[in-house]
Specification:
about 140 residues, mainly alpha, 5 helices
Length: about 140
């Protein structure tokens, strides 16, 4: 296997940029659960075949998601929080699979794939993602 030398400072800034941008997407989805719970209910019905979801459940999901997303942003328990974000985003990327078969009517759904790649990158390189992270940096 070949080795590449990358300055830790540059790498940590790049990884933080990915983490911050993924956070931005997820925090908007989280806030949507509080601001427009009816939208969340419609998403669950359309993409996950879950209808008649109770608004209290949507609120609970929003609270749990907020804890996960904020933990992810600050770099707390990176292995588990990044893996959780990865699984959540993988589900939301695969769930609308039928939309990918009519690409020009659903172009925005394709934005999920580079986000997914960014999250995979964060997971694989989590030990180098040290900028503004409360987990201990690598030695």
């Amino acid at each position: 296997m070949n080795t590449v030398s990358v300055p830790q400072e540059k790498l940590s800034w790049v990884l933080f940029g990915i983490r911050a941008s993924v956070f931005l997407v997820f925090i908007m989805w989280t806030l949507d659960k509080f601001v427009h719970p009816e939208h969340t209910a419609a998403v669950f019905k359309a993409f996950y075949a879950i209808s008649d979801i109770n608004p209290s459940i949507i609120l609970l999901i929003g609270i749990i998601q907020a804890i996960i997303v904020l933990s992810f942003l600050v770099g707390f328990q990176k292995r588990w929080m990044t893996l959780t974000i990865l699984i959540l985003h993988l589900g939301s990327t695969i769930a609308p699979m039928a939309r990918y078969f009519d690409p020009f009517a659903n172009l925005l759904f394709f934005a999920a794939w580079p986000i997914l790649a960014g999250i995979v990158t964060l997971y694989v390189l989590r030990d180098f993602d040290t900028k503004f992270s409360i987990d201990k940096p690598i030695k």
